[in-house]
Amino acid sequence: MGTRYVSDQNKVAMIVESGTYASPIAGSSRWIGEVTSNSIDDAESYIEDRYLGDSSRSVGRYERGPSDVTGTVTYNPVDMALVAYSIGSVTETSGSSTEHKAVEIGTDVNQNPFTSGTSQDLNTPYSFTLEDSKQAPGTGQNFIRTVNGCVLNTVTLSATQGEKVSIDAEWIGQGLTFSSGTTTAVTVANQKPYLWSDCSLTMAGSSINTAKDVSVAISQGIEGPHYLNGSRAIGQPFFGNREYTLDVTADLETNFADMVYNQYYKGGSELNYVFDMNADTTGSQHATITVSGARVTSMDLPSTDEGINETTFTVSAGSMSLVDYTNPAIIGSYHPF
User: Fold this and answer.
1) Angle, alpha carbons 40-234-119 (nearest 5°)
2) pLDDT of the chain along its 337 residues, tens only?
């Protein structure tokens, strides 16, 4: 019998890529955060052959179809690196706290500029390598899957009362390789994750003081084409339509109900909102997401026979930016080049 893999030896490492799509830099690992789960959907997409003359009701044979690798890494964040990458262009200003700014960019500019100041072929979005390993005693016993060319598709930032902030980062990768050797070392950042108590939501200049569940989803509509290029793997991904969604569950109170329901949902007015996460007083763990030109697109207001009345509503569209401050001694640069 073999040795069972135990979860305490699981590890997920993000590895910086070189500037050539799907080409990782050996030893350039980055800690994502407090990863709680990582799922990899490795679809071989076999094609069934049925044809006349086989004289059988069964499948005649199988052909190897398109190879698609997707997945989701779920973690409790201490920084907003993946959120910044999912928004667009990221710039940094160094100091006692490193300021990171992420803004939207159109497809008329380089999506992934590297040291030379030019973009890689086909203007591919920012990509990284993801290593998922399960370790066991003995030489050559590890179970390691490495996915190169991961591009963020949808990143959802969630805060729920009484819990840590959580991020679900859905990605599309180019290809998966298996090995059983040595895993990539990861240095854990000695910093607490963001908590619900660090978070606040402001809409149209008014604080939503009774919010108890907030999620911000950033979707870039990434597509991975299967070109006629001699490979089963995807070609370099590209952006589709961009969408932002804010979902909120809150206790219903008078001023808030009149503003959100009457003016912005029924009235159809545009609004701005700010989701702020401030985990310290020194400015070295503080992130602010700002969205302008948004609209309340749905609102549920049930009446129940007990407890406090709640409302759940969705805010869509708009333009997004992020300002994020980190401790440079703990987190380091978001830019790998």
Assistant:
1) 105
2) 789 999 999 999 999 998 788 999 888 999 999 999 999 999 999 999 999 999 999 998 999 999 999 999 999 999 999 999 999 999 999 989 999 999 999 988 888 876 555 666 788 899 999 999 999 998 899 999 999 999 999 999 999 999 999 999 999 999 999 999 999 998 999 999 999 999 999 999 999 999 999 999 999 999 999 999 999 999 999 999 999 999 999 999 988 878 899 999 999 999 999 999 999 878 899 999 999 999 999 999 999 999 999 999 999 988 999 999 999 999 999 986 6
Residue 17 lies in a domain: yes
* Domain containing residue 239: 7-42+66-326
Q: Which of 74, 252, 249, 253 is nearest to 161 (CA)?
A: 249
**39 is written with which tokens?**
């799922």
Residue at 256 is within a domain: yes
Q: From CA 88, how far away is CA 97, in angstroms rounded?
A: 21
d(CA 230, CA 238): 19
- Return the number of other C-beta atoms located less than 10 Å from residue 178's C-beta: 9
Q: ∠ CA(63), CA(65), CA(71), 5° rounding?
A: 140
* Threshold 0.70, pTM exceeds: yes
Count of Cβ atoms closer than 10 Å to residue 45 Cβ? 12
Q: Based on C-alpha coordinates, what's the Rg of the chain? A: 23
- What span, in angstroms and rounded, lies between the C-alpha atoms of 32 and 12? 8
Total structural domains within the chain: 1
Q: Write the CB contacts of 176 (distance below 8 Å, at least 6 apart in sequence).
A: 40, 42, 69, 145, 146, 147
Residue 225 included in any domain:
yes
Q: What is the dihedral of CA 35, 197, 278, 85, to 10 degrees?
A: 30
Per the DSSP assignment, residues forming a β-bridge with 253 are: none
Candidates 282, 268, 280, 278; CA nearest to 316 is 268
Is residue 117 packed enough to be buried (19+ CB in 10 Å), middle (13-18) or exposed (0-12)? exposed
Residue 332 placed within a domain:
no
